[in-house]
Amino acid sequence: MTTSTTVPRAGRWERLRDSYLLYSFKRDLVAQLSLLIFIAMVAVAILAPWLAPMNPYDLAQIDIMASEMPPFWMAGSDDAYLLGTDAQGRDLLSTILYGARVSLIIGFGAVALQAALGICFGLLAGYLGGRIDAFLMRLADIQLSFSTLMVAIVVGALVKAIFGSSTFSAYAVPLLVLIIGLAEWPQYARTVRASVLAEKGKEYVDAARTMGLPSRRIMFRHILPNTLSPIFVISTVQVANAIISEAALSFLGLGMPETHPSLGSLIKSGFDYLQSGSWWITLIPGAVLVALVLVINLLGDWLRDVLNPRLYKG
Amino acid sequence: MIAFLVKRLFHALLVMFVISLIAFAIQENLGDPIQQMVGQSVPESEREALREELGLNDPFFVQYLRFAGNAAQLDFGYSYNFNQPTMEVIARHLPATLELVAAATFLIVFLSVPIGVYSAIKPRAWLSRFFMGVSIVGISIPVFLTAIVLIQLFAIGVSWTPFPADTGWGSWLNGVITTDGGMPAYGRGNPVPVFGTWTTNFATLEGLTYLVLPAISLASIMLPLFIRLIRAEMLEVLQSDYVKFARAKGIPLRRIYFLHALKNTMLPVITVGGVQIGTLVAYTILTETVFQWPGMGLMFLDAIERSDIPLIVAYLMIVGLIFVITNTLVDLIYGLVNPTVKLTGRPA
Description:
The complex is a heterodimer. By secondary structure, chain A is mainly alpha-helical. Chain A has one domain (about 25-55, about 75-305): Orthogonal Bundle (MetI-like fold), CATH 1.10.3720.10. Chain A has helices at about 10-15, 20-25, 30-45, 50, 90-130, 130-145, 150-165, 165-170, 170-200, 205-210, 215-225, 230-250, 265-270, 280-305. Chain A is globular, with a radius of gyration of 23 Å. Mean pLDDT of chain B is about 80; it is low at about 160-170, about 175-180 and about 345-348. Chain B has 13 helices and 2 strands. In chain B, strand 1 and strand 2 form a beta hairpin. Chain B is globular and about 85 Å long. Classes of the chains: A mainly alpha, B mainly alpha. Chains A and B meet through helix 6, helix 7, helix 12, helix 13 and helix 14 of A and helix 1, helix 6, helix 7, helix 11 and helix 12 of B.
C-alpha cells in the first residue's frame, strides 16, 4: 500500500496553474523581479567556474602586481578587471562569483540542516507532547533567548578553538553549515510544533490513529504535509538569515578563510584597505550580499502574504 | 504572583546552571592551567604534583562544585593575556558596551514608535510605503556592512561616486555624501571617568561624536524590525471593536491613537523588544569589531584569538547572566502590565 490516493486528482501542473499562488505571483511585480534576480544570481553563482574571467583559487593566475586596481568607471582601471582587483591581485568579479557560490551553498546547506532538525523536533514535541515537548521547547527557548547569532558566534569560536585554525579552514564549509544549522533550528521547531498542535485535533488524525497506523507514519505522512506552508515561508527568511549569519561569522574571522572567500570574508579582507581608499574591495561584495539577501526577503514577504500562516512573531 | 515569580526565578537558575555547565566543560577541555603556569623545562613529576595540589585530579563533580562556588562569587580566575582577575578586565570593558547598547536603544525607541505608529495610521501614504521599503532593505543589510558604509561616508570622506568630480552634479553629489575629516570612526576617544572603572562618553560633546556612528550602526539592525512590529500590532489594534467604539463616541483621533491604541500595541512590543534588546549584546561584537570600540565584544574576540580561556569563560557567564536577567525582567513586566496574563498557570 504505497499510494493512498483513491480519488482521482488533477495533475500537478493543472493544480499549479489554477492555484492562488501563481495567480498572485502574476500580479506582483516586486515578487517577479525578485525571483528573476534571485534565479539570475543563483545561476551565475553555480556557473562561476565557466563564467568567471579567472579562477581566484588558482595561485598561478593571480598577479600581485595588479593588486588594488579600481573598477572600470574610475581612473587607473584595467579592462581585464571589470570590477577591479582585491589586495592580493585577484579579479574582484571572479572572486565575487565564487564567493556568492560559497555563501549560497552554506546558506542552503544550513537551512536544510535546520529544517531537518527543526521539523523532526517540532513534530515530536507537538505530536507526542508531555516530557519530550517540555524538554525540547525549553531547549528552544533557551537558545532563542540568546539570539541565534550569539549562539553561532560562541559555537563557531569553540569549534575553531577545538580544531585549530588550519583544520577549521580546511573544513570550513561543512563546519559552518553545522554551526548555523545547530544555532537556528528552534525557529523551525516552534513553527512546526504550533502547526502540529493545530492539526492534531482534526478528524483525519483521529481516523489515522483509529486505523492503528504507527505514530511515525501519522507524523510524517499525514500531519507534515499539512504544515508545509508555514515551513515554506520561514524557509525563505531562514535562507536569508543563514547567509547573513555566515557573512557575520566570516567577517569576525570565524568563517571562510581568505584563500577560499565567501562574500563575508571578502568584505572582511577589503575592510582593512578601506582607509587607503580601496573601498570597492569591501563595498562591491557588500552590495552583492545585500542584493541577494534583499530579493530573498522580498520573496519571503510575498510568500507570507499569500500563504498567510500564523507565524511565530520575532 | 508569588508562584509566578518563584517559577520564573527557578527557570532563570536552571538556565544559568546549563550555561555554567557549558562554561565549565569549555574550561575543562580547552584550558590546561598547568601549561600556562609553568615553563617548558618543568618535569612531568612536578607538573603532576602541582596538578594534585590545585585539585585538577579531583572527580568532575567536585571540580564543578568548586567552579560554581567561585562563579557565584564572580571569581573566574586570572586572564592569561592581561594577567589580572578576569572580572577586573570585564569591568573595564563593560561600560563601553553598555553605553553603546543604551545609545542604540534610545535611537530605536525614539524612532521606531513614531514611524511605526505613523505608517499604521496612514498605511497608504507614500511616506509609509517609503518607510516600509527602507525597512525591508534595512533588514537585509548586515550590521557590519552598515557600519562600514557609515565609516566610508562620514569618516573617511573620499569621493567615490561613479561620477567625475569636476562635472556639475558629480561634484554636487560628492559634496553631499562626503564630509572631509568628518566623524571619528575608531575607538572611544577620551571617555570621562565617572566612578571606579566606569568611564562615560555621554559627558562631553567630543565623547558623543565618537558614539554617534557605532550607535547608529547598532540601532540600524533592530530599527526595521521594531518599525514593522509596531506597525503590524497597531494595524491589528485599530481594527478592534473598542477603537471603533471610541471613534463612534467622537473621541479625538489623536487621543484614540496615542492613548487607547498605543497602549495595547506596546504589549507584544515589550516581549519581543525586551528579548531583542538583549540580543543587541550579540550584535555589539560585530559593531565593536568594525569601530574598534573597546567593549566586551572586542575583548571576547581578542580572547578567542589568544585562547584566553578564563576570559572566554567569564565572558560567557556574564553575558549569559545579562541575557537571563533581561529575559526574566521582560517576562515579569509583561505579566504585570498585561492583565489578561494569568500569572500562575501560564501555559509553557
